[in-house]
Amino acid sequence: MTQTLTLRRPDDWHLHLRDGEMLKAVLPETARDFARAIIMPNLVPPVVTGAQASAYRDRILSALPEGMTFTPLMTLYLTEQTDPEDVAAAAQSGLITAVKLYPAGATTNSASGVQDFDKVRGVLETMAEIGLPLCVHGEVTDPAIDIFDREAVFIERVLDPVRRATPGLRVVMEHITTANGVDYVASQDDMGGTITTHHLVINRNHLLVGGIHPHYYCLPVAKREEHRQALVAAATGGDARFFLGTDSAPHTDPNKESGCGCAGCFTATNTLSVLAELFDRQGALDRLEGFTSLHGPAFYRLPANEERITLEKGGPVSYPSHIETGEGPVTVFDPGFPLHWRVVGA
Ligand SMILES: NC(=O)N[C@@H](CC(=O)O)C(=O)O
Ligand SMILES: [Zn+2]
Ligand SMILES: [Zn+2]
Fold this sequence. Notes:
By secondary structure, this protein is of the alpha/beta class. Helices cover 34% and strands 18% of the residues.
């Protein structure tokens, strides 16, 4: 008998949709399986005001193909000039669901991020008062810190001090990649941690052994195998602080396969197949729905989706190696192992 698995329709709590032609091409890849997603604001220029978020939301909704439903949950990009009143108004009107903190220079399109945390204290205090979550790219940018240590150092130097200075601030540590991140999130209240599909699959060997593999390059960079195992344990362990944020981050192949390749893995197309395979291998299929569909809404104080999707286990499932976009091809994440679960009903 065919094995099936029915879940509440998943949400993606960390997604890059970009804009223009890229947006048009990648949006259906997410909307096919996901009901909602937290939309990252690191466009060029970034989405910093309520008015910009509202315009971006309209562009996303007009890029959605007929017959698909999808709710973009908008965010504002925190800068040292961000006005607490604009943030509060955007939150109260329901336009935004979170604010995103990029340490200046930490990742793709983060040049306008925060350098001096004293300058954003007012915004963070307002957010704590109104219960608006802060999503954090958790890496220090100090050139003296080794890239593989940047997440662990961020927790000590930035994240913990900021949280202590702003009691009640609700924080999501995004795309955690280390056992340090897992331990920190698991030991705190008012915290969530998103975990990506690719960080559950790859370690730093995938990136560097047998040649350099640019399509596995993302930030934070994949770490040692023991860290990947800690992420798998967190994702499959049932702790509601951990939930899916794919960080699906499309860049065209020429921009990835370059002398200075962009950071980001594009996982929207096959995320659910990869996750089902992984949870199945862990004997944790019964925990998949919590990770993809329940823990995130609980943290964000939103209802879980009522709609269901069904996955079916069968012969090997294949996905296109890349999708075409008006800007060029984008390679789809290759987990490096066969997949057997496909979404059959959504
Ligand atoms: N994760 C990545 O490697 N890249 C993201 C930015 C980010 O989430 O840090 C992107 O926008 O391309
Ligand atoms: Zn990031
Ligand atoms: Zn991201």
